From TrEMBL:
Gene source species: Piprites chloris (Wing-barred manakin)
Gene Ontology terms: cellular component: cytoskeleton; cytosol; Golgi apparatus
GO MF terms, alphabetically ordered: serine-type endopeptidase activity
Annotated function: Serine peptidase whose precise substrate specificity remains unclear. Does not cleave peptides after a arginine or lysine residue. Regulates trans-Golgi network morphology and sorting by regulating the membrane binding of the AP-1 complex. May play a role in the regulation of synaptic vesicle exocytosis.
InterPro entries xref list: AB_hydrolase_fold, Pept_S9A_N, Peptidase_S9_cat, Peptidase_S9A, Serine_Peptidase_S9A
This protein's UniProt keywords: Cytoplasm, Hydrolase, Protease, Serine protease
Pfam family name, one: Peptidase_S9
Stated name of the protein: Prolyl endopeptidase
Keyword Cytoplasm: yes
Organism ancestry: Eukaryota, Metazoa, Chordata, Craniata, Vertebrata
Gene: Prepl
Entry annotated with the keyword DNA repair: no
Coiled-coil regions listed: none
Residue ranges of domain Peptidase S9 prolyl oligopeptidase catalytic in the record: 504-681
Amino acid sequence: CVGLRNILQGLNCSVKYYSSINHLQTTCPCKIKAKKCHILNCSGCACTRKTAPPGSILPWRFFSCKEGTRISSKKKQSTSVVTSELLHKNLLKSEQEKWNDISPIYKPMTKRIKEKLEELHNKYTFNSESPKMRFGENVYFEENGCIFLSKADDDEGNVDILFSTDDLGFSDAFIQRIRISPDQRYMAISLKSESSEEATCVIMKLGDFPVVKKVIPSVFSFEWATSDVLYYTTQKNLKCQNVFMIAFTNQKHTKLVYTEQDARFFVDIYLTKDRRFLTINSNSKTTSEVWLVDCRNPFELPALVQARTKGVIYHIEHRNNELYILTTYGEPAEYKLMKAPVASSSKENWQLVYALEKKTKLVDFEMFSDDCIMFLKNAGHLYLNVISFVSHSVRSIKLPTWACEFELESHPEHTTSTCYFQLSSPVHPPKRFAYSFKENNLIEQAVQEVPIITNCHTTRLLAKSKDETLVPITVFHNMNSKELHRKPLLVHVYGAYGIDLNMSFKEEKLMLIEEGWILAYCHVRGGGELGLSWHKDGCQHNKLKGLHDLKACIMLLHKLGFSQPKHTALAAASAGGVLAGALCNTDPELIRAMVLQAPFVDVLNTMMKTHLPLTIEEQEEWGNPLEDEKCMKYIKSYCPYQNIKPQCYPSVFITAYENDQRIPLTGVLQYVQKLRKAALDHASRTSKKGNWTPNIILDVQANGSHCDSSWEHSLSE
């Protein structure tokens, strides 16, 4: 969860670890058809997972994990818990029975879809070799739950197995993150199962016979400060507040280095690209504080860069004894690159290096020895800004117009002269590109030719919202399609935490295009597509603006002839369920169906329970209804669960997870029950010709967790 992309955006609900000096990059399990394989390249992912590091809006830290309210009386509490558990079991059993009754109806359809998706998956993920990381003559890579070591000059394919999840009894886990110590004597690995939020860190001593030296439970992030000193953070109840140091010297010992006292803040660690400093980053959703550990003296106390200042986010890189600071400090409150001497790092000494233009989204940032690259998005188009620290110049490079997503590759050596990355869109498989600092040009890498999608048209629109704000929409459809107003339309929305809609390649999106569907992505306020101000204009007391944006987008699509209400479906995941569920209450006539994955649908009740682990830090996104009556009324005005009423609803399909710690299953069960009752009440009260009763279906997955599933699970879903 390190790397600048974290600070800049974060699922959609996924996990992506970006590299520093020696990181193998973790992604989703899709490219190699293995039992449980999280490999190092994101091409062909069925579900991209993004996690966020320093100063970021943590995309997946959504809500809470435990149900029940705090009651002072132990007797009352015991009775309440028993009653709640019984209600939960009864609701779950009832929904499982309904699912078992209705799911056979869809078997022929799901069989056809599964076969088609597998065909597309095999077609577009043929370049499935894991990315490799080179240290001198040694090359490390990971496949099928194993970590291998080979020699760079070995053409015969000889490899040594350093680690296997099966051999060490972790058969149900996948490899999430790998860190090799600078002298390659040690390797730290984090292992995580799909049904758990917490990971286990295994530290191995390498050599002719690799051996396990330490196993640390509940670890979130970790980095080698030196060849035998590892720093790591621990996670408990979805929170990271402690940083530890473990030394594998002659006197092996573990020491607590840092503790965060504020429940709104989340702690992780990052290693600067030149390995000079390890940073301890304490971040809320709006404020940062960074401490430096000098890797030349890892046992000394961390030094504060700048005390936390409300509303100021910052992240640290290092070059030539100067700190390079990516921050929101100053006006306007968008990201800027600044610098300051290491010896005098407070914000009074920060000097501006580069400021982003208005309505520009900083997607990613990579530091090199003489340059840095900013991956930017403006009006839906992607481009690079290359900042030279030597010539003090800024070069701007446009990227292909079809591209919607960046994927930065690992660059272990910060002195490299080339930056590698991938571009994709929901319907375009990833293509690899390289930017050469010396030649100042962009090169498309054609290791293996990716089949070109020639029959898909991309359109970018602007919808005028209720307050006249222009809201971007990205539309994909088959160029050969005629009478688009008769074609089915799938609308996507998120609009929270400053996170962009996930627009990476997915086989199911391409399948829909080939079958005549129209895909629309509504970049509403609350997300981050137009920078930090776009998020700010759609959170807390501005949440309704996101709802107005979504309505305006759908109405414009219909007005321009992209489908019509009776052929329109709306899709959302996690916090996107707030706007989707709200639209379902206010304007159900605009859509015929709604598909939700692990949806957040009861904002009010969740934000009233401060004993839940994430509620306090979530107040910066949703507000504090306990202390602000206006906030309570405002949340109640749009909360999906609170506003269900008897009316003609669209059909609804919801996927939920029994082990989801962020969206409690009980809340989803109660939402489905209330929604179904309202739809049936309406149907029984009216007898107008043409009335229909919607299908409201809940599929509760026993495996998987919050929007985080393997290729096999996502295929089934």
